[in-house]
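re: ur question from the group chat, yeah i did fold both. here u go
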Amino acid sequence: MFKVYSRYGVWIAIVLIAYFLLLKLIGLHQYPAFSVLNGLIYGAGIYLALKKYRDGKSKFKFEKGFEVGLLSGGIATLIFTIFMAVYMYQIDTELATSIMERWNLQYALGTLMLLLTVLIMGFVTTLVLTLSFMQLLKKSWNTKDGNRNTLK
């Protein structure tokens, strides 16, 4: 299980970093609206991690699948937040200021607030997507014909 969520967590983080750097190359990295696509990246990675874990097991337990989803997204979130911290504190120190000015916020903790926002958004996205995907991937036992309500 460690192999699955660590591998997919690192890959999610790599794709998130590549997407951010692509936005930087185009000049759109200052617009937080483009971070909506981060949810698609998280979703694809978590879904693939859950599918990989489920396919390797004869009996798929909800708790273990939930753990795989949370940890793969959590690892990706931590790696991406560390990358953003290095980027905002060392490479582009004006990014936080320009984003805070667009939001009309005058806080002295601009960079720290953005890093906290990246961290919280990553964990919340991970939690919501993991809960959603587990509903699709779990074996239903609520109805007599429960198997027709699950993805195969």
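okk and heres the other one u asked abt
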Amino acid sequence: MSEDTDDMFDDLFKKYGKVVFKGNAQKYASAEVDEDAECLSFAVALAKVASDVKASDIKLLFVKPLVYWTRFFIIATAFSRPQIDAIGSKIRDLAETQYGRTATGDHKPNSWTLLDFGDVVVHIFLPPQRALYNLEEFYANATLIDLPFENQQTFRS
């Protein structure tokens, strides 16, 4: 870098308080597909854990074309706050031990608990809140991913 460039960055920093740089490098399409596949594998593993803890009506939605901040939503129904806590705890444990990932979001069981892993966001609802917020309808244009495991009971209010 030249001194002129350094001066330009200094001026930008003084004016805006930060310097934002955007490179021209584009990801190759194959790299993005690989990342989607890796995220899908992670999301299916998390959904399987929810199923193992008896969550109901588990949906996995590919929302990347609709939102800029994540790739997948997992939406599940639990029938008590202790069950929400158990599902969330088991999901966090698997994510940390097998994938080295930590969720941001709720750590106390509420009627709607959210665990944000960046590219996978897990929503665990009690039945009334799931019906009220109806994320499946709000993201109706998302692609529903078939889950490769059993124990899928359908929740309807």
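fwiw on the second one: The two ends are 62 Å apart (CA to CA). Residues 29-52 form the longest helix (24 residues). idk if thats what u expected
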